[in-house]
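Collaborator request, handled under Task 6.
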Amino acid sequence: MAHLVQVGLGSGGMSVIDMLVRDMRISKVTLIEPDILKPHNLPRHLLGSHNVGKPKLLSAVKWLKDRNENLEIIAIEAFLQDPEKQDLINNAIKGADFGVCAVDNEEAKYHWCSLMRQHGIPWTLGEVLSGGIGGFVHTFVPGGPCYACACTYLKREGPKDSKDSKPDYSNPSGEVEEARIPASFASIQTIASLHALATMDLLDAKISPSSFLLPLQKVEGIFSESLRKIVVNVSKNESCLFCSKAPDAFLDVDDLLQKKLKELSGGLGL
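Structure tokens returned to the collaborator:
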């Protein structure tokens, strides 16, 4: 029986865990989420209006128990990077079989990547693009390319649908905060389903690193057509600030992230 660890229970994260716990091979889940459900979350979230103002974590536990009553759930209501919660988080995820990252915050993604590397846990990440025009699904495995490797590749040599494509795929409009992706419920569900399928591959021991992009809309200058899977061949970056170091090495995420952002911006101050 498998132990799944997941950070993030927003619209995408809740949908992913909802799909995963219906597989009876998953007997235990560890969930990490600090936020409460707010009214503006409702159009894209599985949880209903009666949960507004309540912690997403507690509402999610009840939701999941209703679907798999034998599920063992460890619920950690905390920000992933909270220094006072690191021992609790590390002990909870120790020995887990696979992980899921469903957060939009970049610092949290890097922190999660470090935790997964330290514990040797394969994991997946789903990312919905601004406006719901498409999404990425990544699978990371011990010893393979890490999240920082994928970011470096995508920022420098992002998959181009045409020779004239120039927008940054992580934020095509250049105006929307990445933590507030204005995607439709349907777009989120589509990428969440693919995210769940990629995670199920880990459960089936199909553990190989992979990244792919699925355009959901035809967008001038970005995607020439919709629903055409684009495989992204991310290789391990030997100079990566993260995975060039030993898995158990202490990583100052804030410092490394600032260095990476400065590098990706061509040395300009941010």
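The cover message to the collaborator said: "The helical segments are 11-20, 56-67, 86-93, 106-119, 147-157, 185-203, 253-264. Residues 185-203 form the longest helix (19 residues). Please let us know whether this matches your experimental observations."
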